[in-house]
Specification:
20% strand, six-stranded mixed beta barrel, four-stranded antiparallel β-sheet, homodimer, Aldehyde Oxidoreductase, domain 3, 3 domains, Barwin-like endoglucanases, Pyrimidine Nucleoside Phosphorylase, Chain A, domain 2, alpha/beta
């Protein structure tokens, strides 16, 4: 055989037809190949081999699962959903399969596991490979675990943050001051962003806000905003919105400001490890990438919130301020009350309804949501120089009261693609107080779980509507909260969950 | 609907028919279910949900992968090979799918991640869940990472070792002295076990040796032995072999002496992390479970061996002796030279060939392998009381020289199922010296990598045959080593790897 013919032969030995299996492996790209396929046999691939898949100009590293079975046709490479989306091949396109390049950055992960400090070069190498999708879930888990707790010192956290900024897009708004906010951890119903952005933008500041969808909660800010307007904007559409209105509230995932963070989250979610360094790097890298200069961090503290003590909040807050300074962000903190849900609704549409009530100045609008939003907006107005120190809150209240914030919110929604009607659910179940007394505590985590079982955030109108707050007196039989669901089955499922748990609302019987 | 009918309805909602997908996910049980199946819909399962699968009296915890696609029939639960073997269902058997029970022991893993000490109760809880298959690969990775390096102190290592012994079988040989040996870490070609066991057994000691397959190396002792005789013996067959011959060399995994170790290894292999505590617990738990009383630990030291300095060997050795004492094992150490490969072959069949040459007293047998085996056998003969102190080496040499060891080895192979022929490969490539000089150093790790890329240990005949040793003079063009492969693709791949690396053999040009 000539050299040319041999090379051609060799190329053919490493090609298979792309086939979409529809298997959702969460985000890890997996390729399914028959053990008797020409590629496995000629290359000596076995299960767990890390392989490089190439389709046209796109490539992705995937983990191989070898298959013995006829459901996978001969000559095809079955792709998991993550692999399919990474390659985006035409139907029946050729996929070239080869060994994944050696991952030299794993030596840094090992060094960190063994307790050594990593320098900026090491973090750049690791995060570069992570963002490029070269780490398997196991490698990601080792890296996340090795950095968990307080294992990253200040300079390591700075280096990690810079590395995460470096691999993403970085927006430039051509303005001296660009404000932003972030709320750490879950507090059901805490949708202040949808109020803060229009208030602040109405005062002339620039606030291009990217928000996340729910990861483990019944609604993320992006999910709630999506009830009212499109949020899947690309960077060009986001830019048009901000240039026209001074603000936006879009989904961060579609602008991919921090691609490394998008990857790390896939193991952080199931592992559920607290990691101060990674939290700081995740938050601040996205703010820096969004082109922000001044960032307000809202830290709700409570026994069932993410941050459980004021000391923990202060320690985390210090780290956020220090790392922010190192990467050129001015960070300010507000430690807030995280004892109970904010507003009444928990779930995208129910929360959107609360937001609209506040913006429209309705008499029945939840006052806690309004007060929280005004305090945060006031802080940002002062931070961004739109109000003298001490008068931000007053300015924010004026702008909300006189309808400028509501007008600005409508303008933002229009610019993002049009204001939408809030949907409602057909199936509801009211949960009432078993005894008379006073509401002593509310378990935020279990309440959030009930809202998810009722269908939130997949069914945007589903969730929980809360009717009583801590300290409220209640009569036996008085409604405490209402489950909202899109289907009878989901209502049943959430209702059964609530019935079989200790009460979500603790009622202390009065003497 | 009556309560009874409703309960029946609910039971039916959680059942699917078992279907074997043939997908090899290495060892993690995965269940594939259609997103529109009744179970996903009624239970709210999503991808990555940890579910409990029950088929008849057997159950297993698996990770769910949701599928959109018609290759998976409606109403079936597709099982990965690991899930299929764990449940062993009849064809079309009903599988009940429910949420996996809460894993309380994860709180201990998190505590360890955050740097806290774990007590015996914590290790028992974690290892109990690990051995029962309740940990996903991500949880295993977090645990292994959190215990890596020197993160386990002495009492934690003792507790981990005891916990690992407690979940496995523990053999009882009814004899006062049962000897064993273990070699720490990789030294390519170091197959002294296949020589030590027959020598020691020929002198009347009992040595029921369980060995591992390759984890990250081109051959484990069990892989090499399997070239010569079956090693997948169950405990009854192992017992028959030892009762008949005084020794055996079997695969530890098939007798499941340390089921927790068998599970941990599935993430340790790809992560490739060093962990003193886990190494000690892994080694000693298997020795204790095998019913050993006296254990010789061979610690090869060299710049590219697993243990790189005499100090590191002594520190690890102390830990092995201390933990051994705590669990009732008498542990003795021999620190050996780990500068270069032992024998000539690297890979199961090539190593087996070297072993046979030594046993048969062939003139071309590798002397380094022979000398190493004699020293270790001599130590064990003294440790087990079969030779007075100082005369073990001489006795070992006599038994090897007069053919008693070879006869014993053949008896052991026969008892294990029959002595086999050693296979050879069709594809070979000779790597030669680029310059004349003297061999100054050999990179064991890169050499092992080349042997693996050539196909070892999956292709037992594949690997590397080494033709020169440190200190040998070589001419330019003289063969240094030969790659052996079962397929042209693998030979090509290994050859390309060798060509594009710095030379594996360092040749210092003579003045």
């Amino acid at each position: 055989m000539s050299d040319h013919a041999m090379n051609e032969q060799r190329d053919h030995d490493t090609r298979l037809r792309a086939w979409r299996t529809g298997i959702d492996t969460y985000q890890e790209p997996i390729v399914y190949m028959r053990s008797d396929c020409v590629v496995c046999r000629s290359e000596g691939f076995t299960t767990q081999t890390r392989v490089l898949l190439t389709a046209g100009t796109r490539s992705a590293v995937a983990t191989l699962n070898v298959v013995e079975g006829n459901w996978l046709a001969p000559g095809v490479a079955g792709l998991s959903e993550a692999a399919w989306h990474a390659l985006d091949p035409a139907a029946d396109a050729w996929i070239n399969v080869s060994y994944a390049p050696t991952l030299d950055s794993l030596s840094h992960v090992r060094a960190k596991v063994y307790g050594h400090r990593l320098d900026a070069g090491a973090f750049n190498a690791v995060i570069g490979d992570v963002a490029a999708g070269r780490y398997s879930d196991l490698y990601l888990a080792a890296f996340v675990t090795a950095c968990a707790g307080d294992r990253l010192d200040l300079s390591e956290t700075v280096a990690l943050t810079r590395a995460m900024v470096a691999v993403g897009h970085r927006l430039d708004w051509g303005r001296e001051t660009v404000v932003d906010k972030h709320c750490v951890g879950g507090l059901p119903g805490n949708r202040t962003t949808l109020l803060v952005v229009p208030i602040v933008a109405a005062c002339g500041l620039t606030m291009p806000k990217t928000s996340s969808r729910a990861i483990t909660s019944p609604a993320g800010t992006a999910d709630t905003m999506e009830v009212l307007a499109p949020v899947n904007l690309d960077i060009a559409a986001m830019r048009r919105t901000v240039e026209r209105t001074g603000g936006c509230i879009v989904w961060g995932g579609s602008v991919r400001l921090s691609p490394a963070d998008d990857v790390l989250i896939r193991v952080e979610r199931p592992l559920d490890l607290d990691s101060e360094g990674q939290l700081v790097a995740s938050v601040l890298s996205k703010k820096a990438a969004a082109g922000s200069t001044h960032v307000l961090i809202d830290l709700p503290v409570g026994p069932t919130a993410k941050v459980r003590s004021t000391e923990a909040a202060q320690s985390l807050g210090r780290r956020l301020v220090e790392v922010g300074r190192a990467i050129g962000l001015q960070v300010t903190l507000r430690i807030t009350d995280g004892l109970q849900p904010v507003g009444r609704g928990v779930g995208p549409a129910l929360e959107a309804r609360d937001v609209l009530a506040v913006l429209r100045g309705q008499a029945d609008a939840p006052d806690d949501l309004r007060q929280r939003a005004l305090r945060l907006a006031g802080d940002i107005l002062e931070l961004g120089g739109a109000a003298p120190n001490g008068s931000g809150l007053q300015l924010a209240a004026e702008v909300l009261a006189d309808g400028r914030a509501w007008a600005k919110f409508q303008a933002i929604c229009e610019a993002q693609g049009g204001l939408r009607e809030v949907p409602v659910t057909p199936y509801r179940q009211v949960i009432t107080a078993a005894v008379a007394g006073r509401v002593a505590a509310i378990d935020n985590r279990v309440l959030a779980r009930a809202a998810k079982l009722a269908g939130a955030p997949k069914a945007p109108a589903a969730g929980v509507d809360v009717h009583a707050r801590i300290g409220d007196p209640v009569q036996a039989g008085q409604p405490l909260f209402t489950l909202h669901a899109q289907t009878a089955g989901e209502l049943d499922y959430a209702g059964h969950f609530v019935d079989t748990r200790p009460p979500i609302f603790q009622i202390s019987e009065e003497a």
